[in-house]
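ok trying again, last paste got cut off:
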Amino acid sequence: MTALKKVLIVDDDPDILDQVEHVLKANGYEVHAIDTAAQAEEFLTAHQPDLAIVDLMMEQMDSGFVLCHQIKRLYPNMPIIMLTAVRAATGLGFDAKTPEAKSWIKADCVLDKPVRSEELMNSVRKLLQA
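nice, full thing came through this time. structure:
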């Protein structure tokens, strides 16, 4: 029997946290849901998930960027999905499709909130190649 893939979700919005956790568990993933970047940093010193899903704006406007950098420093090969409401709030968006963008974003995929369950799961499966 194979172990479940472990996914860390970090988001300060309890509705998003619950939604993403529910979708992942329904699709057979072990989920660790955390609502602050600071708590996620503590978790990551003791645990290595297979994938992280990180909100961009939490305690600080750039908490997600900082957390992504810390994750990649600890676990360079761990895939990261960044969730963001920046496009909805400002009309401006960004992605992690080019090497230049990935060099400063540190996420492997950027998804806009609200994210559809199918879009999220397609990205998770692609990054975990499962």
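cool. The mean pLDDT is 87. The chain is about 45% helix and 20% strand.
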